[in-house]
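[job 0412] stage=complex_fold ligand=INI status=START
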Amino acid sequence: MTTPEPRAAHRLPALGDLGRSGIVGSLDGAGVRIALVCGRFNLDITTLLLDGALAELEHLGVGSTDQAVVWVPGAFELPLAARELARTGHFDAVICLGAVIRGETTHYDFVAGECAAGLQRVQLDSGLPVIFGVLTTENLDQAYARAGGALGNKGTEAVSTAVEMVHVVRHVAMLGEGSRISMGAAKAADAVGEPRLDWPPEPEPEPAPEAGALDDLPGPAGSVV
Ligand code: INI
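[job 0412] stage=complex_fold status=DONE, emitting C-alpha coordinates
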Protein backbone atom coordinates (compact mmCIF):
# COMPACT_ATOMS: atom_id res chain seq x y z
CA MET A 1 0.00 0.00 0.00
CA THR A 2 1.41 3.42 -0.88
CA THR A 3 1.47 6.26 1.61
CA PRO A 4 -1.03 8.95 0.56
CA GLU A 5 0.34 12.40 -0.26
CA PRO A 6 -0.22 14.85 2.61
CA ARG A 7 -3.30 16.96 2.02
CA ALA A 8 -2.50 20.31 0.44
CA ALA A 9 -4.16 22.13 3.34
CA HIS A 10 -1.34 20.94 5.60
CA ARG A 11 1.32 22.63 3.53
CA LEU A 12 2.20 26.30 3.30
CA PRO A 13 1.30 27.49 -0.21
CA ALA A 14 3.47 30.08 -1.93
CA LEU A 15 2.21 33.65 -1.61
CA GLY A 16 1.38 33.77 -5.32
CA ASP A 17 -0.71 30.59 -5.11
CA LEU A 18 -3.42 31.92 -2.80
CA GLY A 19 -6.06 32.37 -5.51
CA ARG A 20 -7.97 34.74 -3.24
CA SER A 21 -8.04 38.52 -2.86
CA GLY A 22 -7.10 40.22 0.38
CA ILE A 23 -4.15 41.81 2.09
CA VAL A 24 -1.05 39.69 1.80
CA GLY A 25 2.52 40.37 2.81
CA SER A 26 5.48 40.22 0.48
CA LEU A 27 8.90 38.64 0.62
CA ASP A 28 10.79 41.86 -0.09
CA GLY A 29 13.39 42.11 2.64
CA ALA A 30 14.76 45.54 1.67
CA GLY A 31 14.47 47.91 4.62
CA VAL A 32 13.31 45.15 6.98
CA ARG A 33 15.29 44.99 10.23
CA ILE A 34 15.56 41.56 11.79
CA ALA A 35 17.03 40.24 15.02
CA LEU A 36 17.84 36.55 15.31
CA VAL A 37 18.11 34.82 18.67
CA CYS A 38 19.73 31.41 18.64
CA GLY A 39 19.94 28.80 21.39
CA ARG A 40 23.31 27.12 22.06
CA PHE A 41 21.69 23.92 23.38
CA ASN A 42 21.91 21.26 20.60
CA LEU A 43 24.37 23.59 18.86
CA ASP A 44 25.01 21.26 15.90
CA ILE A 45 21.34 21.66 14.98
CA THR A 46 20.89 25.32 15.84
CA THR A 47 23.90 26.40 13.76
CA LEU A 48 22.29 24.67 10.77
CA LEU A 49 19.10 26.60 11.45
CA LEU A 50 21.08 29.81 11.72
CA ASP A 51 22.96 29.11 8.49
CA GLY A 52 19.64 28.54 6.71
CA ALA A 53 18.24 31.75 8.17
CA LEU A 54 21.26 33.88 7.22
CA ALA A 55 21.22 32.57 3.66
CA GLU A 56 17.51 33.37 3.36
CA LEU A 57 18.00 36.89 4.75
CA GLU A 58 20.48 37.52 1.97
CA HIS A 59 18.20 35.87 -0.61
CA LEU A 60 15.28 38.12 0.36
CA GLY A 61 17.41 41.27 0.33
CA VAL A 62 17.61 42.04 4.05
CA GLY A 63 20.61 44.37 4.43
CA SER A 64 23.59 43.09 6.38
CA THR A 65 23.44 46.16 8.64
CA ASP A 66 19.76 45.44 9.33
CA GLN A 67 20.55 42.10 10.98
CA ALA A 68 21.73 41.15 14.45
CA VAL A 69 22.42 37.73 15.97
CA VAL A 70 22.13 37.08 19.70
CA TRP A 71 23.03 33.77 21.38
CA VAL A 72 21.29 32.43 24.48
CA PRO A 73 21.90 29.20 26.44
CA GLY A 74 18.74 27.33 25.45
CA ALA A 75 15.19 27.55 24.17
CA PHE A 76 13.89 28.47 27.60
CA GLU A 77 15.85 31.74 27.41
CA LEU A 78 14.57 32.73 23.94
CA PRO A 79 11.48 34.66 25.14
CA LEU A 80 13.40 37.02 27.42
CA ALA A 81 15.98 37.82 24.77
CA ALA A 82 13.18 38.33 22.22
CA ARG A 83 11.39 40.70 24.57
CA GLU A 84 14.52 42.78 25.17
CA LEU A 85 15.24 42.97 21.44
CA ALA A 86 11.65 44.02 20.73
CA ARG A 87 11.92 46.73 23.37
CA THR A 88 14.94 48.33 21.68
CA GLY A 89 12.71 49.58 18.87
CA HIS A 90 15.51 48.76 16.40
CA PHE A 91 13.86 45.74 14.80
CA ASP A 92 10.76 44.96 12.75
CA ALA A 93 10.76 41.26 13.69
CA VAL A 94 12.56 38.85 15.99
CA ILE A 95 13.32 35.32 14.84
CA CYS A 96 13.97 32.70 17.50
CA LEU A 97 15.90 29.55 16.65
CA GLY A 98 16.30 26.54 18.86
CA ALA A 99 16.18 22.77 19.01
CA VAL A 100 14.29 20.99 21.77
CA ILE A 101 14.74 17.25 21.53
CA ARG A 102 12.71 14.89 23.68
CA GLY A 103 14.85 12.99 26.14
CA GLU A 104 14.13 10.58 28.93
CA THR A 105 12.60 13.19 31.22
CA THR A 106 9.70 15.59 31.17
CA HIS A 107 12.15 18.50 30.92
CA TYR A 108 11.44 18.65 27.19
CA ASP A 109 7.76 19.42 27.73
CA PHE A 110 8.48 22.29 30.08
CA VAL A 111 11.20 23.81 27.90
CA ALA A 112 9.24 23.49 24.64
CA GLY A 113 5.93 24.60 26.12
CA GLU A 114 7.28 27.57 28.02
CA CYS A 115 9.34 28.65 25.04
CA ALA A 116 6.34 28.61 22.70
CA ALA A 117 4.05 30.33 25.20
CA GLY A 118 6.68 32.93 26.05
CA LEU A 119 7.38 33.79 22.43
CA GLN A 120 3.68 34.15 21.66
CA ARG A 121 3.33 36.45 24.65
CA VAL A 122 6.20 38.66 23.47
CA GLN A 123 4.72 38.76 19.98
CA LEU A 124 1.28 39.85 21.21
CA ASP A 125 2.59 42.28 23.83
CA SER A 126 5.06 43.95 21.49
CA GLY A 127 3.04 43.93 18.27
CA LEU A 128 6.16 42.75 16.43
CA PRO A 129 6.32 39.43 14.61
CA VAL A 130 8.21 36.99 16.85
CA ILE A 131 8.89 33.86 14.86
CA PHE A 132 8.93 30.38 16.40
CA GLY A 133 11.86 28.83 14.55
CA VAL A 134 12.25 26.19 17.22
CA LEU A 135 12.37 22.51 16.36
CA THR A 136 10.53 20.26 18.80
CA THR A 137 11.30 16.68 17.85
CA GLU A 138 11.43 13.19 19.31
CA ASN A 139 15.03 12.56 18.30
CA LEU A 140 18.13 13.94 16.58
CA ASP A 141 17.32 12.39 13.19
CA GLN A 142 14.02 14.23 13.03
CA ALA A 143 15.81 17.43 13.95
CA TYR A 144 18.49 17.04 11.25
CA ALA A 145 15.76 16.35 8.69
CA ARG A 146 14.26 19.78 9.49
CA ALA A 147 17.58 21.63 9.75
CA GLY A 148 18.60 21.50 6.10
CA GLY A 149 17.82 17.81 5.53
CA ALA A 150 15.03 16.05 3.67
CA LEU A 151 12.28 18.15 5.26
CA GLY A 152 13.73 21.59 4.64
CA ASN A 153 15.18 24.08 7.07
CA LYS A 154 13.08 25.63 9.82
CA GLY A 155 15.51 28.57 10.00
CA THR A 156 14.97 29.35 6.32
CA GLU A 157 11.19 29.19 6.74
CA ALA A 158 11.38 31.41 9.81
CA VAL A 159 12.94 34.21 7.77
CA SER A 160 10.29 34.19 5.04
CA THR A 161 7.58 34.09 7.72
CA ALA A 162 9.17 37.09 9.44
CA VAL A 163 9.44 39.21 6.29
CA GLU A 164 5.88 38.32 5.23
CA MET A 165 4.51 39.22 8.66
CA VAL A 166 6.41 42.53 8.79
CA HIS A 167 4.57 43.54 5.62
CA VAL A 168 1.23 42.25 6.91
CA VAL A 169 1.62 44.27 10.12
CA ARG A 170 2.64 47.38 8.17
CA HIS A 171 -0.34 47.09 5.81
CA VAL A 172 -2.79 46.62 8.63
CA ALA A 173 -1.26 49.53 10.56
CA MET A 174 -1.77 51.70 7.45
CA LEU A 175 -5.45 50.72 7.41
CA GLY A 176 -5.73 51.98 10.96
CA GLU A 177 -4.17 55.33 10.07
CA GLY A 178 -7.24 56.68 8.29
CA SER A 179 -9.96 56.11 5.76
CA ARG A 180 -7.72 57.38 2.93
CA ILE A 181 -6.44 53.85 2.50
CA SER A 182 -8.99 51.38 1.25
CA MET A 183 -8.56 47.64 1.46
CA GLY A 184 -7.72 47.52 -2.23
CA ALA A 185 -5.16 50.31 -2.02
CA ALA A 186 -3.50 48.73 0.95
CA LYS A 187 -3.23 45.47 -0.91
CA ALA A 188 -1.69 47.13 -3.94
CA ALA A 189 0.59 49.48 -2.06
CA ASP A 190 4.16 48.62 -1.38
CA ALA A 191 4.68 48.55 2.34
CA VAL A 192 6.55 51.74 3.09
CA GLY A 193 5.14 52.78 6.45
CA GLU A 194 7.10 52.27 9.61
CA PRO A 195 5.49 49.84 12.02
CA ARG A 196 3.93 51.49 15.01
CA LEU A 197 6.33 51.05 17.87
CA ASP A 198 4.28 52.39 20.74
CA TRP A 199 5.40 49.46 22.88
CA PRO A 200 6.35 49.18 25.68
CA PRO A 201 3.69 51.61 26.91
CA GLU A 202 4.66 54.44 29.22
CA PRO A 203 4.29 53.16 32.79
CA GLU A 204 1.46 54.66 34.81
CA PRO A 205 2.86 56.99 37.51
CA GLU A 206 2.80 55.35 40.94
CA PRO A 207 0.32 57.09 43.28
CA ALA A 208 2.15 58.81 46.15
CA PRO A 209 1.67 56.85 49.40
CA GLU A 210 -0.54 58.57 51.88
CA ALA A 211 1.18 59.89 54.98
CA GLY A 212 1.35 57.22 57.64
CA ALA A 213 0.49 54.33 55.26
CA LEU A 214 3.86 52.60 55.75
CA ASP A 215 3.30 52.48 59.48
CA ASP A 216 0.23 50.31 58.86
CA LEU A 217 2.30 47.48 57.39
CA PRO A 218 2.84 44.39 59.54
CA GLY A 219 6.36 43.62 60.73
CA PRO A 220 8.88 45.21 63.05
CA ALA A 221 9.40 48.94 62.84
CA GLY A 222 12.11 49.88 60.35
CA SER A 223 11.69 46.73 58.21
CA VAL A 224 10.33 48.70 55.27
CA VAL A 225 13.06 49.79 52.88
N1 INI B 1 17.24 23.62 25.82
C1 INI B 1 17.09 23.49 24.48
O1 INI B 1 17.23 24.48 23.75
N2 INI B 1 16.80 22.28 23.95
C2 INI B 1 16.63 21.16 24.72
O2 INI B 1 16.38 20.07 24.15
C3 INI B 1 16.76 21.27 26.11
N3 INI B 1 16.58 20.12 26.96
O3 INI B 1 16.14 19.08 26.48
O4 INI B 1 16.85 20.16 28.15
C4 INI B 1 17.09 22.55 26.66
N4 INI B 1 17.25 22.72 27.98
C5 INI B 1 17.88 23.90 28.56
C6 INI B 1 16.92 25.04 28.76
O5 INI B 1 16.56 25.64 27.53
C7 INI B 1 17.53 26.14 29.63
O6 INI B 1 18.66 26.67 29.01
C8 INI B 1 17.90 25.65 31.03
O7 INI B 1 16.84 24.95 31.62
C9 INI B 1 18.28 26.86 31.95
O8 INI B 1 17.18 27.74 32.09
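Confidence is low (pLDDT under 50) at residues 179-200, 217-225.
[job 0412] exit 0
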